[in-house]
Amino acid sequence: MNKPLNRVPEITIYFWIIKVLATTVGETAADFLSTTLGFGLATTSYIMSGVLLIVLLNQFRLKRYVPVSYWFAVVLASIVGTLITDRLVDKLGVSLVTTNIIFGVSLAIVFAIWYANEKTLAMHSIHTAKRELFYWIAILLAFALGTATGDYLAEALNLGYFQALLLFGAAISLTAISYYYLRLNEVLAFWIAYILTRPLGASLGDLLTQPRSNGGFGYGATNTSILFFCVISSLVIYLSLKQKRAKASVSDI
User: Fold this and answer.
1) Are 104 and 90 in contact, with CB atoms under 8 Å apart?
2) What are 13-56's pLDDT values in tens digits?
3) Count of Cβ atoms closer than 10 Å to residue 169 Cβ
4) Residue 75 belongs to what domain range?
5) Interatomic CA distance for residues 25 and 31, integer angstroms
6) Is residue 237 part of a domain?
7) Which positions ≥6 away from 224 have C-beta within 8 Å?
8) pTM of this structure
9) Are 60 and 129 in contact (CB under 8 A)?
């Protein structure tokens, strides 16, 4: 009997690099589409949500991990998560505190239901459509929560983008230390780090794109989005070729 294929990637250094880059692109690309191109939050949200749905349907159809499809879905989920939070805060007037609570509680509920049904939240066991559905819902909520958390610390509390970046970086480092040296549960450590990389990426995106008068570097959403998209694309192409070579080696045995 063949072992079921995992639908998501192994947790390697490449995973975390692309994850942080993707979360940053989620922040910068959302601003680029809604503000720079003038589509507005509502129109951009509808368009990107539709594209995300199409990509996820293809992801479920594949029933296995394919780097291009998977990471394209992650980037889109990052963009949509950012847009959801921005619409709640900027258009509907929901406070960042309330937004953090809403997404935090929602994510906890998803994890609870997921665990009650599957008895695991482990990345390496996502080999059914049901588990993958829970996974993508959790990712979308994590992106929305991370956007709200990053904005709350950097803007509402006037912490500043660079200081917020350092804070989230320190929190991720502490999680890694707890996992490697204090025996923190592997699955718990992964999801803590996964959630924290979103506000880390959001803070990095704001730091790079915001004008100097607002505490940023002033590179702009367009330049930053293009640069990070190119880096992500290069890494995904590399991983795709690596996966292809691995399959060829196995078939030759």
Assistant:
1) no
2) 999 999 999 988 888 888 888 888 889 889 999 999 999 999 99
3) 16
4) 13-252
5) 10
6) yes
7) 24, 28, 205, 208, 209
8) 0.91
9) yes
